[in-house]
Amino acid sequence: MNEPTPASTVRLFIALAPPDEAKDELARELRPAYDAYPGMRWNRIEDWHITLAFLGEVPIDTVGLLRAPLARIAAERRPLRLALRGSGCFDERVLWSGVDGDLDGLHLLATEVRSAVKDCGVPFEDRPLRPHLTLARSRRDDATSVGEVATALTAFAGRPWLAGRLHLVGSNFGRGPGPIRYRDIEAWNFGEDTTAAEDGGRPCHSAS
């Protein structure tokens, strides 16, 4: 039997992920909605993330280019104190939970991450950061469910938590009939010790 040909591209984004305790707290708040709106396409809890930079479909060797600069950024950063708060929707079809806490630090981190990606020569759509977790999507013929759930979650205020890792994530978008699934390709702990970064590499553009 022939072995499958390895993919030449991968769909990437760089993100933070809430800890299990924060995700469980929001999931408990969502239980009535899970029962009331089973037709919505709910994201798996383990896939919840805060996207810092969405790169889309890129050559597979992009992963190797990004490892050193992302490791350096993480090593030079302290954990961010964040919280999940409130809810809303995009285009009446995408349900999200908002992010509160050290938003200045979050925006600064996103700027550093995006600068590193650009230094690697990786083209991507540099949209303004709107920190959120995507929770669900409605069916095309359902124009009300997302708004109703968002309204019910308006007063939600989760307990603060520390975002302590930077994640490089890949997805299987467009690679099969099933739902989108995400996987950590690599993740780096935040910390004050910068010695690893000195060894691991400065920006990609110095490599040939």
Number of strands: 9
If you average the pLDDT, what whole number results? 86
Low-confidence stretches are 1-5, 174-178, 193-208
Oligomer: single chain
SSE order in H/E notation?
Answer: EHEEHEEHEHEEEH
β-strand percent reads: 25-35%
User: What's the total helix number?
Assistant: 5
Shape label: globular
Rg estimate, integer Å = 18 Å
The largest sheet is: 5 strands, antiparallel
Order of strands, main sheet, comes to 2-6-5-4-7
How far from one another are the termini?
Answer: 38 Å
| Structural class by helix and strand composition | alpha+beta
Helical proportion? 25-40%
Identify the notable features of this structure and list them briefly:
208 residues, alpha+beta, 5-stranded antiparallel beta sheet, 4-stranded antiparallel beta sheet, 5 helices, 30% strand, globular, disordered N terminus, disordered C terminus
Describe this structure as you would to a colleague.
The chain has helices spanning 20-36, 62-75, 103-119, 145-152, 195-200, and strands at residues 9-16, 41-42, 50-59, 80-90, 94-101, 132-137, 161-163, 165-171, 182-189. Helix 2 (62-75) runs antiparallel to helix 3. Mean pLDDT is 86; it is low at 1-5, 174-178 and 193-208. The chain is of the alpha+beta class and 208 residues long. Strand 4 and strand 5 (94-101) form a beta hairpin.
Short description:
By secondary structure, the protein is of the alpha+beta class.
Write the layout of secondary structure elements.
Layout: E1 9-16, H1 20-36, E2 41-42, E3 50-59, H2 62-75, E4 80-90, E5 94-101, H3 103-119, E6 132-137, H4 145-152, E7 161-163, E8 165-171, E9 182-189, H5 195-200
Antiparallel strand pairs: 1-3, 1-8, 2-6, 4-5, 4-7, 5-6, 8-9
Helix pairs in contact: 2-3
